[in-house]
Design brief:
seven-stranded antiparallel sheet; three-stranded mixed sheet; about 15% strand
Length: about 325
């Protein structure tokens, strides 16, 4: 795996990406992460990360090559750069065959990192160390960490829901809320909505199915993004000082730290925004928060203020009835 990635780690190409079946294709920049294919806009802001072992080529032997992030996905990526096409095939094959091989060098590096963590913690303090690590982690690396955590979550819940009409409805809801970053629905009941590094908002399909109001879906996305100031911070707090120093020195986190964090997000507890912070988000989106109060109450969270707020003047419809039904069925394939 390392040889294949080393060979192509600086390779980039242009491509055409389509997020949903009815979306227009847009020009994007394609590059490699440590285990993902990174799709960025022309300003180099990451749009999505695809797990390389799961990437599928839909038209073998034909150019431009058309790729998908998985068998149930409606996303499409067209590439006509022969070198990039060859690289994707080579790297995803190498990732699928690779097995970890710990050895003496890894042991020495681990000891060095532990020593560095002790020195850094003693001189800076844990909070300052985490702050430095957050400041030194660029957007592309954050997005890749988030994508890998999401991959570990999907290993337990099943693949993210990608029914075409539901995915299009989710995209329209994101646009309605004015939020940036990906939004993902997992086919499971979650302790609550969460946001991953890179701004990936994750919600559970069970909540969408249980409540018959699109304001609940809006509340889940708003709550996820309001739950923490920086999604990297709770990850580093759980991962510990050694992993934080690893991120600062190598630009990556140990796989076990990402897997453990994914387990925590699935098993709870998860970060929860204050009512005041959540109300600000509802007000900004011009949506009444009352419909979201039962969700908070069921989870044992404060909800009294949500019920007493006057509906905003001039508030627009959250989603059409048709789109709400489609979003509720996003996991129906």
């Amino acid at each position: 795996m390392k040889t294949a990635l080393d060979r192509y780690d600086r390779l980039e190409s242009l491509g055409l990406w389509r997020e949903t079946a009815d979306a227009q294709r847009r020009e994007v920049l394609v590059s490699f992460g440590s285990a993902t294919l990174v799709v960025s806009d022309t300003a180099e802001r990451p749009l999505t990360h695809w797990s390389l072992p799961a990437v599928m080529r839909l038209n073998p032997g034909t150019t431009p090559a058309i790729f998908s992030p998985g068998p149930d996905s409606v996303e499409r990526l067209e590439i006509d750069d022969a070198e990039m096409i060859e690289a994707i095939e080579a790297v995803r094959g190498a990732l699928g065959r690779a097995q970890p091989r710990p050895g003496r060098l890894r042991t020495l590096l681990t000891l060095a990192l532990l020593a560095a963590a002790g020195i850094a913690a003693a001189s800076l303090g844990p909070d300052a160390l985490r702050s430095q690590a957050r400041g030194a982690t660029p957007a592309a690396q954050r997005a890749e960490l988030g994508a890998r955590i999401l991959g570990h979550m999907q290993a337990r819940t099943g693949p993210a829901c990608r029914e075409a009409r539901g995915t299009a409805a989710l995209a329209r809801l994101r646009s309605r809320l004015g939020t940036t970053g990906q939004a993902v629905v997992l086919p499971a009941a979650l302790p609550g909505p969460v946001v991953l590094p890179g701004g990936i908002a994750v919600i559970g399909q069970a909540t969408l199915a249980r409540y018959d109001d699109p304001a609940v879906a809006a509340g889940e996305l708003l709550s996820a993004r309001a739950s923490v100031e920086d999604p990297l911070d709770p990850l580093l707090r759980q991962a510990g000082l050694r992993a934080t120093v690893t991120l600062m020195t190598t630009g990556d986190l140990p796989a076990e730290s990402l897997r453990d964090y994914a387990d925590r997000l699935l098993d709870g507890p998860v970060p929860v925004p204050s009512e005041a912070r959540l109300l600000e988000r509802f007000a900004r989106a011009r949506i009444s928060p009352a419909a979201y109060a039962p969700v908070r109450t069921e989870r044992g969270q404060d909800a009294a203020l949500l019920l007493t707020q006057t509906p905003p003047e001039g508030g627009a419809v959250v989603l059409s009835d048709e789109d709400w039904i489609r979003l509720q069925g996003i996991c129906d394939l």
